[in-house]
Amino acid sequence: MAQVGERESEELTLVTTKPYFDLPTACPLCLPLFIYLKLAHFPFRLSFNSIFPDSDQIPYVESGTYVAYNNENGGVIENLKRDGIVDLDSEFQSVPDWVAMKAMISSWLADAMMYELWVGSDGKSACKIYYSDLSWPIVKVLFLKQVYSVKQHLGITKDNAEQREDEIYKRAKIAYGALSTRLGDQDFLFDDRPSSLDATFLGHVLVTLHALPETSVLRSKLLEHGNVVRYAEKHKTKLIESSSSSSGPQFRSVPSSSTPKRGPSNWSSKPKSQPKREKTEGEKTFKRRARYFLAAQLVVVLLFLSLMGGNDAGDMELDDEDEGNAFD
């Protein structure tokens, strides 16, 4: 059973990227958190950050005077569990198979998704998920910069690109097979009860099915497992499409007008906004950051071009044709 802490009485705001592809958010990191809160029947308000959509702080949650970021202490779900806010995993943490499958989803399937979005496809899905509100020159530079970063993360070079691609898809195929066998005809992966494992896997499956192109190799491998597809679509109908029904937890979707707020680690304190006309320091900071955002990205352009000019740029292997497809 889900353990819900006393902070449930305070409104929780989940900040993600914007909705696309018939999903509340198509970001592979944001959607699992959305699903986790829905599986726990934890009420929250959904907000979108369109200014810094590729920030590694997103997704993050705010509740009262507290905030937890994606890039701190193992991510938002771990923070929610550690701080006693909401925990779906208390009875599974010591189950070896559960731990092994969580590691497989967090590594093999996460790598496969990263590869598909940034390297193994034309890039249109990634640009729509993360950069839809940015100008074309900035989108192009940020996309190429991210492709370079992903190739470094996955250890892809000019010499081993084909081999690494085969390894990534082979591991994804193994993971899908193992998870499909484990799921069977159940509604959830373990003991027919929801956990963060279901949230993470459902987020991955739904992004794969709805955000990746029909030509996607990863998508084709997933479609081999009909029970996994049914499992994902069933929960999509229940948790997402019927989210406005009175029987489910309620949330409101509003455009975000705030940047991710910095703080220490874990749950970080921040000033609570008061309903008044005068601008707060946070709003003034946001205005300044928004004003200089373009200038900052120009600096990124220069740094990136500098990197491209180095001796290691050959490892990036960006074909003109592939590069152009993402921006058509």
Can you walk me through this structure?
- The chain has 328 residues and is an alpha/beta fold.
- It is built from 12 helices and 8 strands.
- It has helices at 30-39, 76-82, 96-118, 124-131, 136-153, 161-183, 196-210, 217-222, 226-241, 281-291, 293-308, 320-325, and strands at residues 3-4, 12-16, 45-49, 60-63, 66-69, 86-87, 253-256, 268-269.
- A 6-stranded mixed sheet has the order 7-3-2-4-5-8, covered by helices on one side.
- Strand 2, helix 1 and strand 3 (45-49) form a beta-alpha-beta unit.
- Helix 1 crosses helix 7 (196-210) and helix 7 (196-210) packs across helix 9 (226-241).
- The longest helix is centred in the N-terminal third of the chain and has 23 residues, at 96-118.
- It is globular.
- It starts with a strand and ends with a helix.
Task: Quickly list its features.
single chain, 328 residues, alpha/beta, six-stranded mixed sheet, Mito_Protein_Transport_Metaxin
Secondary-structure class: alpha/beta
Order of helices and strands: EEHEEEHEHHHHHHHEEHHH
Q: Strand-residue fraction? A: 5-15%
- The Rg value, from CA coordinates, equals 20 Å
Strands across the major sheet, in which order?
7-3-2-4-5-8
What integer is the average pLDDT?
Answer: 81
Low-confidence stretches: 244-258, 262-287, 311-318
Large-scale geometry: globular
- In which range does the helix fraction lie? 40-55%
Largest sheet: 6 strands, mixed
Number of strands: 8
Give the number of helices: 12
- Termini distance? 48 Å
Pfam family, one: GST_C_6
Organism: Hibiscus sabdariffa (roselle)
Protein name: Metaxin
Keywords: Membrane, Transmembrane, Transmembrane helix
